[in-house]
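Example record

Each entry pairs one chain with its bound ligand, zinc ion.
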Amino acid sequence: MNGSIQWLGFAGMSLVVVAYVPQIVHLVRARCTGGVSTWAYLVWSVSGALLLAYAITARDPVFISLQAYQLVATTSIYLFSKRHQGEPCNVHCGTSQSHRTETVAMERMRG
Ligand SMILES: [Zn+2]
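Structure tokens for the complex follow.
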């Protein structure tokens, strides 16, 4: 691969890394599964494993890094949400004002 454009791939990958942070931080800190689709993260984990295998055979360092990260992130979210399923925090129960503020902020970050 042309090394001069490889930085584009790593720049895109760093955005993916940053995008998962709010979800993972909230899951770990609050042990809250509010708004997390366990099914979607399971499917993303399986797809991450398949795409990582493909990236390794294609010997593409950007996709290998990206898929390795995605596999770890989605599998962690899946396992954590499965473990704490049905345990929303006060924020996601809709009982606090900070809930609305945090939810709006998270939705803005997700686009
Ligand atoms: Zn929550």
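The chain has a mean pLDDT of 86.
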